[in-house]
Amino acid sequence: MVTYRRGRTRSYRWLTLSGLLLVLPALAEPPLMVTIQPLTALQFLPQREAPAQVVTLNTTTLSARIHAPISKLPVRVGDRVEAGALVAQLACDDQQRAVGGAQAQLAGLQARLALANYQYERAQTLRRGNNISEELLRQRLAEREALQAEQEGQQLLVAQAVAEQQRCRITAPFPALVIARLAAEGELVQPGSPLLQLLDLAHLEVSAQIDQTQAAHFATASERWLALADGKRYPLQLRSLLPRITPQSRSQEARLQFLDTAALPGSFGRLQWQSAEPHLPAVLLQRRGDRNGIFIAQDAHATFIELPEASEGRPIDVSSIPSNSLIIVAGRQRLQHGDPIRVSSDAAAAIDPE
Fold first, then answer.
1. Is the pLDDT of residue 185 over 90?
2. What's the Cα-to-Cα distance from 340 to each of 6, 16, 91, 182, 307, rounded to whole Å?
């Protein structure tokens, strides 16, 4: 009886195992249906942007350099002036008299020096004939040299008086826009008193904060331009990408120059650029666990390629993806790495946005 029961138990076990082996293929999940497209058919050159503002390199306050009343302020707020244009005139009667006095003294010295030159040359002639002493010749030479030194000193005084007189005329140092009048005609001003405030129109740049993750692509961009709200676009050239990261925004400041016509200083807009590196649409990015990446079809299986630098909502850099990859564009949401897949015959299907 014991032997019989053991044999029957072994038979039941064999039948159960055989049944499981027959059922398991039916229980295995079928390959998931997906749609693929070549990497080269999906990649594109993305356009990126960042907030930007037109800034001027100079906002200058012009001040008086002498003590005098203002005789003329020929410009008003909003006027545009060229470099060298008169923007303020101070009364200069005292300075003019000082120039005249210095020049008169110089003329007197020049007349005395002319006489001294004549006397010295005459003394040289007489000395060659032994008609005067050596001491008298040296005296004539000393008189001439003293007058020459005095003339040089007086010439410096004349130049100083003329420079003081020129300080009565205040001119624009560059093409500028008058943005403030800080004094009035007839007002008595002191050295250092502010008169006008000018905004430089000749030296304009665009300042923008570039996200740290986009800085490398921005530096190699093929095109850059400033887009304003009124629809105008201004081509730009990168002058400098500052090698400094702002801690609060994790961004780098870029300074760009206008290639042609410049926008008005103070204008706000969007700095836009065309990336020189190909990317994939941001919608293809998938997250599995704590990793970002995309799925490609490889040997009838889904392969997850991890992309640590990729961020949700931004185009995907393809530099680390093999160029011959077949990207899974539809059906990717349900996939895990290594899942068996079956490729749909509709190779032209659009990217599934879900």
1. yes
2. 43, 29, 93, 79, 22
